[in-house]
Amino acid sequence: MTTKPAAAAARATVYGYPRQGQSRELKKAIEGHWKGRVTADFLRETAAGLRRSNWRQLAAAGVDEVPTGDFSYYDHVLDTTVMVGAIPERHRAAVEADALGGYFAMARGTQDVAPLEMTKWFDTNYHYLVPELGPDTVFTADSAKQVAELEEAHALGLTARPVLVGPVTYLLLSKPAPGVPADFDPLTLLDRLLPVYAEVLADLRAAGAGWVQLDEPALVQDRTPAELNAAARAYRDLGALTDRPKLLVASYFDRLGEALPVLAKAPVEGLALDFTERAAANLDALAAVGGLPGKRLVAGVVNGRNIWVNDLSASLTTLGTLLGLADRVDVAASCSLLHVPLDAAAERDIDPQILRWLAFARQKTAEVVTLAKGLTRGTGAIAAQLAANKVDLASRANSPITRDPAVRARAEAVTDADTRRAQPYPERATAQRAHLGLPLLPTTTIGSFPQTAELRTARADLRAGRIDTGAYEERIRTEIQEVLAFQEKAGLDVLVHGEPERNDMVQYFAEQLTGYLATQHGWVQSYGTRYVRPPILAGDISRPEPMTVRWTAYAQSLASRPVKGMLTGPVTMLAWSFVRDDQPLGDTARQVALALRDEVNDLETAGTSVIQVDEPALRETLPLRAADHTAYLAWATEAFRLTTAGVRPDTQIHTHMCYAEFGDIVQAIDDLDADVISLEAARSHMQVARELAAHGYPREAGPGVYDIHSPRVPSAEEAADLLRTGLRAIPAERLWVNPDCGLKTRAWPETRTSLENLVTAARTVRAEL
Ligand code: GLN
Ligand code: ZN
């Protein structure tokens, strides 16, 4: 008889934790500091206190190895920029004079100096600050933050693992600095960067780090052979260092694909892989390379991006399979818990039964610990948790909230015909021209107008019970009157009601749709000190009653020209919410689309001839791997068409997109079959107009001529010049004149002048035709 050596006890760990604190203390301290009300010392103490309390919470929950270095005053990629000394030239003096002040200057800019550009962290709703590199970049190691935070955790008597953005991902997320040729490839700096990482690793080892985690999520995207070679070289070189801690290379958000064999072969001591649904292929791929003999595998089996309870028994099955593939298997969430709210137990307004389906950071940590225990000691050791979990999963699966037979029957009955307008575009265009009677180069706006102080006060008063709904709605009507009066006077052609009744373009609809949940405290960091509370798509979606019709109809009753109805599209409703994990995204999108379709049709019945369905998130939700794009775009564009196809040919459907380059989704934009699209374009000098033209886009388009991201007022001449540029790509019969996006973040004075200039520009250019 042989006795197997006892498997090593599985450790529980996470890669990062929400930074803000229970009551968003961090946000308050940082913003207070910006306003000069909070000293740097007080801010530092607040931050240190939050880190300590997070680590204590994690340790008390049973986490064996806590992460350090994941904390940030603003963004962990910016922290990495500081760590490697890649401070942009224009910020150097400020950083040298005052490290903290200079740090915030890089993040937010100052009166004189532009900040770093901000962009989305992979396909999450977190934004990072893009490093700016060039052939002259000199890297220097600054390990102070990493070392200090490790020492803080050690001082609490904890086993800690510093987490750093890995060198390959850091370079792949960078862009050429201003003035550097656009074709400069930051990856060519790898050999210069690695010695800096070597120095940081040595410092961390000297400070007592046993393991250091290097995050390489960029390797889950499609990578060229040259990029994969760079990854191989990076970890061969770092692995060959003698003065270093053990290295754990982490990836998440998707499958590693061709990067898996590269990392499996690398001379590092461990890999952390995502094993949640979207990365499920990692399991077979790991088996195919013969597992990780002699290595530590950290298995991300608890989804770090959704808010649903884990299926503990399914995760245990995965973990059991993995036991055969690595020397030791530890348990983790699939990615940093930064992307989920802190604590579901803080929610008071959610039905206790439904609350049991939800897991935020705190609950996910407990799941990780339970799974590690089950893996080490067998299911008997976690029998109670498994039984309770089974009950919760069954209650969710069988709930009338998640299964509304009427919604399901309707979604199943959708035919292709339901997703197609009755007439092809050219015929619709003729009908709409006759119906609307618009001039060439028609002017319009994207929907929202400045949210005034009176409006904000009224909203706060309503929430606090100081005024009733009647008084609040009176305020909304007044705002609508003012917005319409201005637009008529300014001479805009297609008007909007200004969206004063909306706090947020997704939340406003989520609150009115059955099947959506709102949280009270479910804050998630979007960027810096900005936190959002995404609603939760929890069940089957239906619309108990019209959502926007009465405000649009009211606005139309005041106007002599067409007022555009304004809705948020199905893809964006998903993208900025937490989505269901118990059915394909396309199914959820279809349910939302059907609810919105009813709204579109009701708007038409109420006399609205122009209806805009915003899809700013269409591009940003594109899957990380190109192989998955077709399937995504198929359901996404179908959902949009299902929303909009029920109207008459002479009703004009608009859509709107921003925040992105659109070059790679022009076909998808075409597939929406919207009559008119408005797009962000002012900063790129109408680039998108040329892209649409190159594709042969046959419909009408309004590339923005007014950059609404800054208070700067574009002159009429400047807007006219942009229009002339637009006309070189799009003929006058199909060109619209509008700002880049909504005006809700702007103030009235600059908005007024900018829109007046926009109308002047349209008139000037019309006269030249
Ligand atoms: N209609 C919305 C608005 O004007 C669109 C916002 C957006 O695209 N993000 O505010
Ligand atoms: Zn926009």
TrEMBL record:
Task: Report the active site residues.
Answer: 709
Q: Which GO terms describe its molecular function?
A: 5-methyltetrahydropteroyltriglutamate-homocysteine S-methyltransferase activity; zinc ion binding
Q: What is its EC number?
A: 2.1.1.14
Q: Which Gene3D superfamilies match?
A: 3.20.20.210
Catalytic reaction annotation: 5-methyltetrahydropteroyltri-L-glutamate + L-homocysteine = tetrahydropteroyltri-L-glutamate + L-methionine
Residues recorded as binding 5-methyltetrahydropteroyltri-L-glutamate, renumbered to this chain, are 24-27, 120, 125, 576, 620
**One GO term of the biological process aspect:** methionine biosynthetic process
Where do the annotations place Zn(2+) binding? 656, 658, 680, 741
Query: Which family is this protein grouped under?
Result: Belongs to the vitamin-B12 independent methionine synthase family.
This one is known as 5-methyltetrahydropteroyltriglutamate--homocysteine methyltransferase
Q: Which organism is it from?
A: Streptomyces antibioticus
Specify the taxonomic lineage.
Bacteria, Bacillati, Actinomycetota, Actinomycetes, Kitasatosporales
Q: List the gene name.
A: metE
